[in-house]
Amino acid sequence: MLGVSLLDKPSYRYGLDERPPLGENLIFGLQWLAITVPLIIILGKIVAASHFADPAAQILYLQKLFFTTAVMLLIQVYRGHRLPLITGPASVLLIGITANAGSSIDAMYTATIIGGGLLTLAGATGWLDHLKGLFPPRVVAVILLLIAFTLLPTIMNLIIAPGTGVSPPLHLLFSLAFLAVLVSISRVLTGLWKSTLIIWAMLAGSLVYFLVFSPAAVDMSGSAGAVPTFASFFHEFTLHFSLEPALIVSFLFTYLALFINDLGSMQSVGSMVGATEMQARISRGVTVTGLMNILSGFLGVIGPVNFSLSPGVIASTRCASRFTLAPTAILLFLISFFPAVIHWLGNIPPVVIGTLLLYIMCAQVATGLRIIYESENPLSMDNGYIVGLPVLLGTVISFLPPAVTAGFPAMWRPILGNGFVVGVVAVLLLEHVLFRKKG
């Protein structure tokens, strides 16, 4: 998971705590922005559409998401882990939201506040050392694989995109062709071009879609004229607490995965840039992540996490300065107050979003498989059961028809109907109980 080759600090143009000149700092910040914006838009649009049918409410949701990402990024750079590490909405929390679509929004974001609170305590009180023992490499690998596989129903619905006026088979053909081009291009790109591939693919894919299919068939999320240029979003907070015990338990499993993601991202970048006092950085970083998830719960948006996409950008620009992310945070903050800009950025066809999410999840699968390959006896039958059974079981649960999950007891539905939670429980039982090494 952390297999990042170390680079000597002298090879960087600017070190971790060095400040580039203003002009260069702004250029570096724009490069980070080009990577962050597509991730916010792609994940944010999926969650916003699952909550609200009103385009204005969806844009308001994205405004809050840009705001929380900007605030977390700025705090992390100056007071948190203090590493050149981008942040954004956590894909693992997307699983918790989409798998529990039958629950109220208030209940979901109450669970987000509770999960963020426990994460804050873990970072601030030293629980981190105790939690690490639950996640040996095989468990981490399974969690990474489960994130990808249990998102497949959501990805499938985005690709098929019923109700857009274009037949599902045509959408599927478009997605397959788009994915083939995307993979082919990614094999030959290097450095910054490879790191920013998602934004170019998002723009090019949307343009081709509009050219191939009738613009009238595309959901433009409302008229641009109806969207204000500037607007605040400091209203409609999620302050109506709603406690659903089973839903909270379901979300706590997703926060265990978020913790692993956060930890791995900080360790990989820290080792790459030669950061010192990593234990203190990780504790501060996890604490800030937890606090920002609490804020996200109050605002009613998906919580943020530190992303592991940064090493490629650092290697290509030869700039390890954390201060290059300050302009990114400021620009994200400004964008959050301009709904018209977000509306323009958000006019991406669902099939393009689904295909890009599928491509992004390929990296998740590759990381999980690499961890398994690097483990002891990777081809043993024990590994086959410990890895294969939870992934298959979680995938089956994720594809259960709503009519089946509706038959589960209401109290247990958020747990038994969530493929990710079932998979995580299964791998923990297999790893620590059934296949536990004696002695």
From TrEMBL:
The chain crosses the membrane at residues 26-47, 59-78, 107-128, 140-160, 172-190, 197-217, 237-258, 323-345, 351-373, 385-403, 415-435. One of its GO terms (molecular function) is xanthine transmembrane transporter activity. InterPro entries: NCS2. It is found in: Membrane. One of its GO terms (cellular component) is plasma membrane. It is a multi-pass membrane protein. Pfam families: Xan_ur_permease (PF00860). It comes from the Bacteria. Its main location: membrane. Keywords: Membrane, Transmembrane, Transmembrane helix, Transport. Belongs to the nucleobase:cation symporter-2 (NCS2) (TC 2.A.40) family. This is Xanthine permease. It comes from Heliomicrobium undosum.
